[in-house]
Structures are given as structure tokens and as C-alpha cells.
Amino acid sequence: MRRALRTLALSLWVSGAGCAFFEEDAPPDQLVCRSDAECAAGQVCFVDGCGNPGGDIVVEVQAHPKAGMHAQDFPVDRLRAEQNLELFDPVRLRGRVSRGTVPAVDGGTVPAAYRAPIHLLATGESHLIPGVARRYETTLVPDDGAWMLPVGTGDYTVTLTPVDPGLPPLLGTATVEPATGGAVAFELPTASRLVTLTGTLVRQGTQQVDADVEVQALDESLRPLSQRVRVARDTGAFQLVLSAEDAERPTVLLRAAPLNAGDLVPRKTFVVSPSAGTTGPLELGDPGAPACATVSMRQQLVKSVPSVGP
Questions:
Q1: Is residue 145 classed exposed, middle or buried when 0-12, 13-18 and 19+ CB atoms within 10 A define those classes?
Q2: For residue 112, which of 190, 224, 223 has the smallest C-alpha distance?
């Protein structure tokens, strides 16, 4: 991969990693401080404790996001008055998606490339700067099963959701480095490995939900097992598609939520068994009449008056 050497004016992220021990005889860093005066000589007070302001620094470079060059992180052992950093070409998260197999020339089989539209969501954080979040998403059509997403460096959870509502979403993980990027592969289940879960959602008893509501199956860690699907407003019926592996779980969570936040419909999570393939009527319950409150706010103005000496 070609590299471009550039001298940049940088916005520096000073990480609390500066609180590490640099020498055996260095004083221990204070984990909590209120001012530089509470730190040892040569240290300053950061939000997460005392540290050396000139060493063990991590720099995040936002080169040109609109051109696909997202954040790249670099460790800097010792900060200088003029700092040169070597930016790599735009970092890419690359992947492949397949469904089923096709015959190979040697008589065996190879994965069949999936060529229909997919939605990709990559969420994570910087690998070097804790707490610096990353989020990228796009909808695209794979090129013979291959896809590519420009991202910043970091550790990611990648969710692939086919635009086809009859296929469940898939999750993967990837670490994206400045020089090599990252890679992740997905294999969508074939029709024989899909299970349909049907049910009905009501407000209470036989009363239908008078609002647009979506339902989705989740595991105990709230990982999506199905796509979000719309509940039929006239009947309350819905149909979810899970992989055969997820359908073998003893229970899954079924989350119901209104499509429009302004609708007076409660959000509710049900525990259901997917093995039967169907659920009994699920009741959202009656949230009652909306309550109105009048809030009185008063702003107190404080005028600073300079003191006058005697």
C-alpha cells in the first residue's frame, strides 16, 4: 500500500495513558487530582489523573472524511515542536458476503456470492484512545459478494442487514489498522436454514393497537436475531425470520416499539419460545391517559459587583 508523507497541523488527543510508569525511579502517578499543584514534578493534572504532558501521547488525525480518509491514530513517544506523521492511504474495512454454495471446477463446492443490496453498520471505538467512538454505515450492492467501507482505525462490531426482509441480520467483529485495514466475512443462511416465527400483538384483550408498531427478536445481550418488521395494524399479526440456530434457543426476547415516538403506545419486551414457531397474543397493556404538567421556570440573575477598597 502506497504511503503519503505529510506535515500536518494536528489536533492532539492527550490520553490518560500518560499516567503509565516510564522509568523505575519515576514517582507513581496520582489517579485523582484537582490541579497541577497536586501532581509530581514534570506532571500536569488531566481528567483521569496526573501524567506527563510531553510523553506517551496519542494523536488522532482527521485527514479528509468527505474524501473517504477517516480518523487515523498514531502513538507519539515524545512530542516535538514540529511533528511529522506518516499518513496511510484511506483505511478500508473490506468484507465478503455469501449465501449457499455453487459447484467448483475441481468437483467440489465454493461459497456462492451474495449480490443483492445490503446495509452495513460499523460501530466501535479507537484502538489507541479509549472512549473515542466510531460509527459508519452505508447501503450498497456487493460486487460479486465483495464490499468495502471507508472507516477510521479502531475495533468494530459490524452488522450486516440484507435489504431483503426475509433474511436475518448478521454480526461480526474486526480490528482496522492504519496500514492493513480490516476484513470480515458473512455467510447468510439458505432457505432450509431459516425459521419463521409468527404471532399477534394487541393492546389489551381483543383491542387492537391503534398505531404503527415494529417488533424484533433479540438475544439476552440485545443482539438482533431478526430484522424489525411492521405489525399489521388491522389484525396485529407479525412474522419474523430467524436462523435455524437462533430458533433452537430456549427463549428469545421480542421487543415491540411504536414507529412514531409521538404515539401513546408503550414499549415492551416479551420473553417467548421460538421453538413452537408461533406465539400467543402478546399484550402491550393500557398505558392510561396522558398526564399534563405545568412547569414554572424562573431564572435568577446574579450581578457581579467589583469590590471597592477603603
A1: middle
A2: 190
Per domain, the residue ranges of the chain are 3-88, 92-188, 192-283
Q: Do the domains 92-188 and 192-283 sit in the same CATH topology, yes or no? A: yes
- When pLDDT is averaged across residues 89-118 and rounded to a whole number, the result is 93
Rg of the chain (C-alpha set): 27
pLDDT in tens, 223-247: 999 999 999 999 999 999 999 999 9
Classify domain 92-188 at the CATH class level: mainly beta
- Does the pTM of the predicted model rise above 0.70? yes
- Indicate if the pLDDT at residue 172 is higher than 80: yes
CATH topology of domain 192-283: Immunoglobulin-like (2.60.40)
